[in-house]
Structures are given as C-alpha cells and as structure tokens.
Design goal:
Largest sheet: 10 strands, mixed
Strand content: 15-25%
Helix content: 55-70%
Number of helices: 15
Order of helices and strands: HHHEHHEEEEHEHEHEEEHEHEHHHHH
Oligomer: single chain
Shape: elongated
Length: about 400
C-alpha cells in the first residue's frame, strides 16, 4: 500500500494532468465557495450599510417618538411635555439603538425683495444628519461645536435656497430669519424625502436660546438593523417613562415599509443562497461524472493493478484520493477568490474586512470541499474497487 504522501502526490499529479477535463468542475466549485465566503463574511456589513441608507429603506429603521399637544383638557392646562437629556441618554443605551436625535419645529420668515417668504425652521442637534441619512450637496452640515456654542448658522434645503435666493449655490450667504442673521454653511441632499428640501435647519440650542418656549418634543431613534426595530420599539416607551412623565407619548414605527423591505431582502437572500447551492451541487455532480469517466477510461489500469496484487481498498482509496484532491484544489482556489472578493467589497463599503469571519468561513469552506470530494467520489471509487480482474484486463 502506498504511503499517504505518495498517494496524495500521485492523485494531485493526476488532477493536474487531466486539468482540461476538470476545468469546469474546478471553476464551478471555486466560484460557489467564493460566493459563500463573501456573502457570509460581508453579510452583516452589507446589511448595516443598507440600514444606513434610510432613503432607500424609506426610513424603515427609524422610530419616531413625540409628545402630542393638547390631546386632553387636562394636558392643555399643564406645561407641555418634552424630552429631557437624561431620557435621550437612557434611550441611547437600549440594545439595538444606533443613534438618537432631538428636533423641534418653529415658524420662520425671511424677506425676498419686497415680499415676505415663510421658511419653516427645524432646530436639530449634531446627530440629526447621521440618524436621518442626510448628506450635503454644497458646503457642510454643522456639528457639535455649532450646537454647543450656539452659532447662528443654517443649512438650507435646495428648494428653500431657491425660494430665498433664486439659486441653490448659496454657501457663504447670509439670511435673516425671524429678525436674526444666520450664516448659510451648506445645502443638503433631500434624497427621496422632498419635504426636507423646503426647510431651514439651525442648531437646536441656537433656536431655543432665541425662543425660550420652544421645547424638543420630537425624538428620532435609528436602529442598527431592521431586525432591531421591534425590540427597540417595544422597549422605548418603558425607558422614556422610567426617566420622566410621558402621558402624551406616541411612538410611530413604519411597520408596512419594514415588512416590505424584509420580504424583498429575504427573497434576494434565498435566490443568492440557492444559486450558491446549485453551483456547488453542479460542482459535485461534475466531480462524480469526471470520476466515473476516469474509472471507465482506466479500466485496464485497474485490472493490471489488481493482477499485480492491489486490494480493492487500495483501488478505492486511490480514486477517492483523486476526488478529494480535485475538490480541495477547487476549494483552495475558491478561498483565494473569496479573499479578493471580501477585500473588494470592504473597499466599496469603505470599511475594514472582518478577517476573523473570513478565516472561520474559509475553514468551513475547506471542510465542505473535503466532504464534497468524499461524497461525489465515493460511488465511482467503489465501482472501481469492485471490478473483476479478468474483465477489466480484457476491457477495450
């Protein structure tokens, strides 16, 4: 019986010698393995990036909490409820919460020539842009410093800029809002939410400093993924009520868009996984078919080996070893392609590749390739080992 090292060397050399026959099988298994590694390694990162694109998701991962005004006679006689800083901090600690933002709305007016233009003003904190998935088309979006120092800066929606200045390239201009002069630092991209383009956005503390009765009565909470939305929505009322009075609290979740998105993603995932399984299945069938062909073409060789004293087990192990070498070669090639795919995907998503996941799934892929080689090559190997010596030698 051959040594294991010699057996593997001979088997691998046989695979190389017959590479043209096995090329389709190698590519099929390699591509299926690479797809398996890329999808599982980058799956959570892709989902996270999809959840950050809130315009694409229609705000499905955003939960809106607000206090209604004057819903009862008693509430009209008491001071309106509003979100306290400690409440926002407590909400931020809920598992699954990615970010929170406070905002409030005030009526705004400015002048354009001889006419007065109404311009709704949103007082927002520095987290608003990330939570809502808003980017600047020109200039910049104000941050924490403007909020803390109560700078008189404003970000205009493009439609608001058009109404006030009759153009959208307005960065650096000054605009009078409610008798206060603001510096325009940027314009924003409204995405699919066209109403955002009609508003002016100023730092929340700046707006509250000028309008003392203006209270932050709206809290937007963004979840890490759509899977976190039900859990966060269930926990949110209790957390808020544990920190402050919240008799008129209302929590809104976009359940229908969320269900629609999850349904679409589920079908896409099923299609991708089915494609990978089908590819690997075709690869396994290719190994089986290739090994059956090899057994048939080497029938006389099998007969001669048996005549020279080779046992059935020796013949079976030889062909099974060739099947395993073929499958493992394809698996290793797939791991290499998968590594390249993970690096490309990470670069596109502007993130670091999770190499710990890659190594885990690469190991699983090699193990699967080993099982696939054994499973696909077992029957052809068994058939070769059971050949009759005389019939095999006489085979033409």
């Amino acid at each position: 019986m051959l040594q294991t090292s010699d057996l593997l060397r001979i088997s691998f050399r046989q695979v190389v010698r017959q590479h043209k026959r096995y090329l389709g099988v190698l590519l099929s298994i390699a591509l299926g393995t690479a797809g398996f590694i890329i999808i599982l390694t980058m799956g959570e990162e892709v989902k996270s990036n999809l959840n950050r694109d809130l315009d694409l998701l229609g705000g499905a991962t955003i939960i809106k909490a607000f206090f209604e005004e004057g819903v009862t006679d008693a509430s009209r006689m008491t001071r309106p409820e509003w979100f306290h800083d400690r409440t926002v901090d407590a909400v931020s600690q809920i598992p699954g919460v990615n970010g929170t933002t406070l905002l409030t709305l005030a009526a705004g007016k400015t002048s354009q020539g001889n006419r007065e233009v109404e311009l709704p003003m949103f007082g927002v904190d520095e987290n608003f842009w990330d939570v809502m998935g808003i980017t600047a088309t020109q200039g910049e979006l104000f941050g924490k410093e403007a909020q803390e120092k109560r700078h008189r800066v404003v970000v205009l929606g493009e439609l608001a800029a058009q109404r006030v200045f009759d153009r959208i390239d307005v960065v650096g201009e000054r605009v009078m809002l409610n008798m206060a002069l603001y510096h325009v630092v940027g314009t924003l991209d409204p995405g699919n939410q066209i109403d955002r383009a009609r508003w002016a956005y100023v730092p929340l503390d700046t707006l509250r400093a000028r309008m003392f009765n203006l209270l932050p009565r709206r809290l937007y909470v963004r979840c890490n993924t759509w899977d976190d939305v039900p859990l966060v929505a269930a926990a949110l009322p209790e957390v808020i009520k544990s920190q402050q009075k919240a008799d008129t609290l209302t929590v809104e979740v976009a359940w229908e868009p969320l269900k629609h998105i999850k349904r679409i993603v589920w079908w896409v995932e099923m299609f991708v996984y089915f494609s990978i399984v089908a590819t690997l299945g075709l690869g396994g069938f290719g190994i089986w078919n290739g090994m059956m062909t090899a057994v048939k073409s080497r029938t006389r060789e099998i007969g001669l080996k048996k005549a020279m004293g080779a046992e059935d087990w020796d013949i079976m192990v030889q062909f099974l070893s060739e099947s395993i070498c073929l499958s493992l070669t394809a698996g290793i090639l797939g791991v290499g392609l998968g590594y390249g795919g993970v690096q490309v995907a990470a670069n596109i998503l502007n993130t670091s590749p999770p190499l710990d996941l890659f190594y885990a799934y690469a190991g699983a892929s090699i193990a699967f390739a080993l099982v696939l080689g054994i499973g696909a090559g077992f029957y052809p190997s068994l058939s070769a080992s059971r050949m009759d010596v005389v019939a095999a030698i006489r085979y033409e």
